[in-house]
Amino acid sequence: MNTARIRVLQITDPHLFADPSSTLMGINTSETLDEVLAKIQSDYQEMACLLVTGDLTQDDSEASYQHLKEKLLKIQAPSYWLRGNHDQPHLMEAVNPSAMQKQVILGDWQIVLLNTQVEGKIHGYLSETELELLDTCLKQDPDRHTLLALHHHPAPINSRWMDQIMLENPDDLARIITHHDNIRGIIHGHVHQARTYQFCDIPVMATPSTCVQFAPGSDKFLADTRQPGFRVLDLFPDGQLESRIVRVREEPMKVDIKSNGY
Q1: What is the per-residue pLDDT across 204-218, written as a single tens digit (0 to 9) for each?
Q2: For 13-42, what is each residue's pLDDT tens digit?
Q3: Collapsed DSSP state (helix, strand, coil) of residue 63
Q4: Where are the beta strands (DSSP E) in 107-179?
Q5: How far is CA 117 from CA 6, 80, 150, in A?
Q6: What angle do CA 124, 128, 130 make, to 5 degrees?
Q7: Are 249 and 16 in contact (CB under 8 A)?
Q8: Please, are residues 229 and 208 in contact by the beta-carbon 8 Å criterion?
Q9: What phi, psi does 158 have (nearest 5°)?
Q10: Residue 99 has what DSSP assignment?
């Protein structure tokens, strides 16, 4: 295999607060993000960019975005942010406009970041504008391999409560994808767990949150005791993609599993 790979890292769903001492389900989300970033600094500092795929804030505050921007200064690579259902796009844009790019070119690859947020709602939806953007990015350079980044999951993950708040129009996404053959992978956040599955015969990878995890296969909301983590993606010139999840540690996390929601 050609080893001239491009490394991209993904973190997702940090759910930060204006007050760094605030907790979500008994977990200090600022501290767990710090642990994830420390692991990245220690073991994965060499990267082309860092993707932050939504739910950056928990309390809709400008300060929470400022905290994230300041924390990411430790990472010697550009970061690109996606909106999640919890996010405030005008604050994201105000705090870090350079992070709001929709297309990132990296050698033989491009990353297309699509907004699936429906303001005021939990489920996701791809507007015609976003779909046209994807179609244009795929069409303008058909020989360039593409990694697609979303917040919401495009297909069911066998978790009834989560699948009620997934991408609401996956057929529209499929319509674009099936007219092209240069998408090599899809990544997303939202589900707070690691999963790999297929959509339109393309590998889809869900990534753990940097804070609290959700129990896989649960019919109703249920927290999990797995540790925070992130995803490492290695992109190769021939279109191959290798990916793995890295967690901050192995032992179970102490979380309020009796919580009714987030």
Answers
A1: 999 999 999 999 999
A2: 999 999 999 999 999 999 999 999 999 999
A3: helix
A4: 109-113, 145-149
A5: 28, 16, 9
A6: 70
A7: no
A8: yes
A9: 65, 40
A10: G
- Are residues 216 and 159 in contact, defined by beta-carbon separation less than 8 angstroms? yes
Contact (CB, 8 A) for 191 and 159: yes
Alpha-carbon distances of 87 from 66, 70, 73, 222, rounded to whole Å: 13, 18, 21, 22
Q: Give the β-pairing of 229-235 and 241-247.
A: antiparallel
Question: What whole-number distance in Å separates Cα of residue 231 and Cα of residue 245?
Answer: 5
The Cβ of residue 115 has, within 10 Å, a number of other Cβ atoms equal to: 22
Q: Which band of pLDDT confidence, cut at 50, 70 and 90, is reported for residue 3? A: low
Residue 204, classed as helix, strand or coil, is strand
The pLDDT value recorded for residue 260 is 67
Reading the block at residue 250, the tokens are 């192995």
Within 8 A by CB and 6+ apart from 73, the residues are none
Torsion angles phi and psi, residue 57, rounded to 5: -115, 155
Which pLDDT band, with edges at 50, 70 and 90, does 6 fall under? very high
H/E segment holding residue 80: strand 79-82
Query: How far apart, in Å, are the Cα atoms of 224 and each of 24, 66, 121?
Result: 13, 28, 24
Task: Say if pTM beats, i.e. exceeds, 0.85.
Answer: yes
Write the CA distances from 31 to 28, 82, 103, 232, integer angstroms. Answer: 5, 21, 30, 21
pLDDT digits (tens, 9 = 90+) for 75-116: 999 999 999 999 999 999 999 999 999 999 999 999 999 999
